[in-house]
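Materials and Methods. Structural model of SDR family oxidoreductase. The 247-residue sequence of SDR family oxidoreductase from Nonomuraea monospora was retrieved and submitted for structure prediction as follows.
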Amino acid sequence: MTASAALITGGTTGIGLATARTLHAQGYTVLVTGRDPVTLAAARDALPQDVAILRADLAVPDDAEAVAQHVRDHLGHLDLVFLNAGTGRVAPLESIDETFYDQHFDVNVKGQVFTLQRVLPLLADGASVIFNGAIGAALGQPHWSVYSATKGALISMVRALAVELAPRGIRVNAVSPGPIDTPAFDKLGLPETTRDAFLKELATRVPLGRIGAGEDVAHAVAFLASPAAGYITGVNLPVDGGLSVRV
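The predicted structure was written out as tokens:
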């Protein structure tokens, strides 16, 4: 029996890396992409040797086509696409410029659309597409306006694509992480002591009392891709310890 094949964009760090490990352990043949030479090199050391790692900036349509060609040449088909690559930086509205805006929408929206478009012919009937959203798409958080807008766009896309791709039996869903302890927090530019204090305080707001781990999201992705979720499509699954429903 041919192993199920999965593509994980942004799979060299954080949630993507945890998902690559989880799916590999479940028997998937896994291809991950990334664009940072440092995390690409680290992922080669951290992941099993038979996980394929491909450098690609998926905000560039030519790179998305190269990923699709790699799938054609080496996998032949895909059973799961986890569109996880993303960028997010905090900024008050008055400081946002076109470069900031374009960087977020190019990676978080355009990159997802054209990656999926390029690999769509390679998706097996009955395959699963999962977008990585964010609870910020539904919660008001100051200084996250552009990032939240990109994630809201993805979640709206999930609903439309779930209907569009249903005739092929392809299910389209999203996971929306809450506070997850990944290297993304390091990119906020906070000193280490400030970062640790921020995470500790944030954990007190989470009903389950802790910051999440990448594996928490990875297990949700694996569930949505599994036969156990075979009648679930068009949904956005928060993975946030209850933060989004706390009053």
